[in-house]
């Protein structure tokens, strides 16, 4: 705080490789991170590989129906176990054929029975904290992490009321965007609508009423609420008999995932994946019920990519260039006591989390 005002973060939080390294080793490994969708694990033995905080992990569905996540490393001599995605009756290490059950326990290995004192029941793959959140798989590398309900109180119940058909959803469209900026620049841009009227004409005139937009913290969730524009102007049919069908809402889950529900109870998601101090990959997921006509969802995804997404790419990349300028001095945040669309209270909250992440 300077001169009684709250100023934005210093530029080095977004440009210093040491800060990014701290986040990779600390923040990314101590928070709930999106891994994938349960539709990728339809039957026992289905698995997929992903990466969090520089660690290769895989999630697999057991014969008991439980989705478990393990570090992708054999407990014998550290060879990686699986690649990509697929289905396996058991997990077999390609180096020496040590074989693991879908629950992680060692089942067998060539000649291990000849070793005096060798007890295979002592050996198990290293498991990672995993939660299913409305069909989305989240993991946390911290074995002592609080559950997601503690991190994001009320978010699950709210989303269930906005998307009551969540159990029938599956991804129907992925839009992948590469942005030349620090991941926090992109997240901050997402977390305020101070810039919407000027920079997002389609979103501001065809989806939401910017003057009603408000964002409030809810644990480590930023909860976006707004009224919608005239539903007759929407590009797809909306069944207003369904609860919340005439609303737009968003739940940003710190640090790198967000659920959005567009009018008509259309679920879509943001997933940020940092690839360096000044590079981030953003994946937009769009979802529909199994077997339903997905043309309207695909049309909405295409419109969003051509308008709001494209507009944001230019904004965040310009900010990143500005953060590297000698001429930048962090200015005061606009903190309107009345809140609302032209207040940056959400950025104040977000930047406090960002400071805490590297100042522990």
Structure overview:
The protein has 360 residues and is α+β, with helices and mostly antiparallel strands. It is 25% helix and 28% strand. The strands form three sheets. A seven-stranded antiparallel β-sheet has the order 1-10-9-4-3-2-5. A seven-stranded antiparallel β-sheet has the order 11-17-16-15-14-13-12, sandwiched between helices. β16 and β17 (279-289) form a beta hairpin. The radius of gyration is 22 Å and the shape is globular. The two termini are 19 Å apart.
Number of domains: 2
CATH class of the largest domain: Alpha Beta
DSSP strand tally: 17
CATH fold topology of the largest domain: Naphthalene 1,2-dioxygenase Alpha Subunit, Chain A, domain 1
Number of helices: 9
Task: For the record, give the distance between the C-alpha atoms at the N and C termini, rounded to a whole number.
Answer: 19 Å
The order of strands across the largest sheet is 1-10-9-4-3-2-5
Mean pLDDT: 92
**Outline type:** globular
Query: How would a textbook summarize the main sheet?
Result: 7 strands, antiparallel
- Estimated share of beta-strand residues: 25-35%
Rg from C-alpha positions? 22 Å
The topology string of helices and strands comes to HHEEEEEEEEEEHHEHHHEEEEEEHH
Q: What is the helical fraction, as a range of percent?
A: 25-40%
Q: Which architecture of the largest domain per CATH?
A: Alpha-Beta Complex
Unreliable residue runs = none
Structural class estimated from helices and strands: alpha+beta
Please name the fourth-level CATH homologous superfamily of the largest domain: Naphthalene 1,2-dioxygenase Alpha Subunit, Chain A, domain 1
């Amino acid at each position: 705080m300077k001169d009684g005002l709250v100023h934005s973060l210093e530029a080095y939080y977004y440009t210093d490789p040491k800060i990014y390294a701290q986040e990779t080793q600390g923040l990314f490994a101590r928070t709930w991170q999106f891994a994938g969708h349960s539709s990728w694990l339809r039957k026992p033995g289905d698995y997929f590989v992903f990466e969090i905080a520089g660690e290769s992990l895989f999630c697999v569905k057991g014969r008991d129906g439980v989705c478990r996540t393990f570090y992708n490393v054999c407990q014998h001599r550290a060879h990686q176990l699986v690649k990509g995605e697929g289905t396996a009756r058991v997990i077999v290490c390609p180096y020496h054929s040590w074989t693991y059950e879908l629950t992680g326990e060692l089942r067998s290995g060539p000649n291990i029975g000849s070793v005096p004192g060798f007890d295979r029941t002592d050996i198990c793959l290293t498991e990672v904290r995993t939660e299913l959140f409305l069909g989305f798989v989240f993991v946390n590398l911290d074995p002592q992490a609080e559950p997601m309900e503690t991190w994001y109180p009320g978010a699950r119940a709210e989303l269930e009321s906005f998307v009551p058909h969540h159990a029938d959803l599956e991804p129907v469209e992925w839009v992948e965007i590469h942005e030349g900026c620090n991941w926090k620049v992109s997240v901050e841009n997402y977390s305020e609508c101070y810039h919407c009227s000027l920079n997002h004409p389609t979103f501001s005139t065809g989806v939401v009423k910017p003057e009603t937009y408000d964002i409030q913290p809810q644990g480590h969730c930023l909860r976006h609420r707004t009224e919608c524009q005239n539903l007759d102007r929407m590009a797809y049919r909306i069944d207003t008999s369904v609860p919340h069908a005439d609303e737009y809402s968003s739940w940003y889950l710190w640090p790198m995932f967000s659920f959005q529900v567009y009018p008509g109870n259309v679920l879509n998601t943001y997933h940020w994946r940092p690839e360096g101090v000044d590079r981030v990959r953003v994946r937009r997921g769009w979802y529909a019920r199994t077997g339903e006509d997905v043309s309207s969802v695909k049309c909405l995804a295409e419109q969003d990519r051509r308008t709001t997404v494209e507009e944001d790419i230019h904004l965040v990349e310009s900010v990143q260039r500005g953060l590297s300028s000698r001429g930048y001095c962090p200015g005061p945040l606009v903190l309107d006591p009345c809140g609302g669309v032209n207040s940056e209270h959400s950025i104040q909250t977000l930047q406090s989390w960002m400071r805490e992440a590297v100042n522990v």
